């Protein structure tokens, strides 16, 4: 029941290859042998809670910091590690942070031109115009940042980061300063621009829904380590740990006991994976793994509460052997009696040995 590994592309073919990279701050191991790859044109989301090392990883890739171990390659060339260090401006990396960092005293056009100072004036101007067209802001060239909405400012920052056509674009929580209505639209616009320009990008976020929506693959981090990487679907369907299961969607966790090829749980027996040793296990279930049956069938449950949730209804069920009520969502039209039966689809259960979280 293990998930996929860290590499999806051979390191020598990858646009970006991060191999066994570590970074220590005093006694704090902020990154612990993190490996990941990014293919050309791919969008990877680095997903994790505050303090898990996401920004540290981006800073190392950008060349704003130096790793204590491991190597970073861009298009096969070592840019950090093995005694090499290529400075940020020579890495072909574009950066976009959540505060956009637009220059307030420069027009929109001048902001986008800023990163193009190696080009002759006329060319820099025409490239900047082209990038502003790409993000749909060709008519705002003479405006100043103070006159822009949050969404527009974000698009100018995107145009500026894309202006020199970087090999890799790094986006650090780029939508977190936008209100929720604007965020979805700007996110969709940003994704469209990244796809249109074939950009290879890493997006750092603590928002699983955002990672799922925008990325081809997700690298899930926890406490300085890469927990699992793969497509959103792979992480959803085959989480490597209870933590990974929780990170990518609703999960119902129940205790279990593996004995002789089966797992005894309060929701009935489940088939045990062949490699599982006897002993205590944790069973993680997606809500769709649990079926409601008429009273008298399956494992008995008692409805404690039924709450209205639009087209759905939320049920809290008491089940013998479970400490907390089991929360299920059913179609509003589903009429429930006070007593019901429950069944679990074994093939949708994720079973983990032991009782701790694992990585
Ligand atoms: N320059 C630094 N000096 C000392 N400790 C640091 C430094 N930069 C980061 N850290 C520590 O490294 C760990 C990882 O921090 P990092 O900022 O990379 O996490 P993050 O996942 O980006 O969090 P957030 O989402 O809050 O920005 C934290 O424990 C942080 O305190």
TrEMBL record:
InterPro entries: AAA+_ATPase, ABC_SmlMolc_Importer, ABC_transporter-like_ATP-bd, ABC_transporter-like_CS, ABC_transpr_FbpC, Mo/tungstate-bd_C_term_dom, P-loop_NTPase, Transp-assoc_OB_typ2. One of its GO terms (molecular function) is ATP binding. CDD domains: ABC_Carb_Solutes_like (cd03259). It comes from the Bacteria. Keywords: ATP-binding, Cell membrane, Ion transport, Iron, Iron transport, Membrane, Nucleotide-binding, Transport. It holds the Pfam family TOBE_2. Residues 16-248 form the ABC transporter domain. SUPFAM superfamilies: MOP-like, P-loop containing nucleoside triphosphate hydrolases. Belongs to the ABC transporter superfamily. This is ABC transporter ATP-binding protein. It comes from Methylobacterium komagatae.
């Amino acid at each position: 029941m293990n998930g996929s590994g860290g590499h999806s592309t051979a390191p020598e073919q990858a646009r970006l290859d991060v191999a066994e990279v570590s970074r220590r701050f005093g006694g704090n191991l902020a990154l612990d042998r993190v490996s990941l790859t990014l293919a050309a044109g791919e969008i990877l989301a680095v997903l994790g809670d505050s303090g898990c090392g996401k920004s540290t990883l981006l800073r190392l890739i950008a060349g704003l910091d130096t790793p204590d171990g491991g190597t970073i390659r861009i298009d096969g060339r070592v840019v950090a590690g093995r005694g090499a260090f290529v400075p940020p401006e020579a890495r072909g990396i574009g950066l976009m942070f959540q505060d956009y960092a637009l220059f307030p005293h420069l027009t929109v056009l001048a902001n986008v031109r800023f990163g193009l100072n190696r080009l002759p004036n006329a060319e820099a101007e025409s490239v900047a115009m082209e990038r502003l067209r790409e993000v749909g802001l060709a008519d705002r060239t003479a405006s100043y940042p103070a006159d822009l909405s949050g969404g527009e400012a974000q698009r100018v920052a995107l145009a500026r980061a894309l202006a020199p056509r970087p090999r890799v674009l790094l986006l650090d929580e780029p939508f977190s300063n936008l209100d929720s209505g604007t965020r979805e639209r700007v996110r969709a616009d940003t994704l469209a621009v990244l796809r249109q320009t074939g950009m290879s990008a890493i997006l750092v976020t603590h928002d699983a829904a955002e990672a799922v929506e925008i990325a081809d693959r997700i690298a899930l981090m926890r406490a300085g380590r890469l927990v699992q990487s793969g497509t959103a679907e792979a992480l959803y369907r085959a989480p490597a740990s209870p933590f990974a299961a929780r990170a990518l969607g609703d999960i119902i966790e129940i205790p279990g006991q593996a004995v002789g090829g089966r797992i005894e749980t309060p929701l009935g027996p489940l088939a045990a994976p062949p490699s599982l040793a006897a002993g205590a296990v944790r069973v993680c279930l997606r809500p769709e793994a649990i079926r409601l049956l008429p009273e008298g069938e399956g494992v008995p449950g008692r409805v404690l509460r039924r709450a209205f949730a639009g087209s759905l209804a939320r049920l809290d069920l008491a089940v013998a052997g479970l400490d907390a009520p089991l929360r299920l969502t059913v179609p509003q039209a589903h009429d429930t009696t006070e007593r019901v039966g429950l069944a679990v689809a074994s093939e949708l259960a994720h079973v983990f040995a032991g009782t701790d979280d694992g990585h």
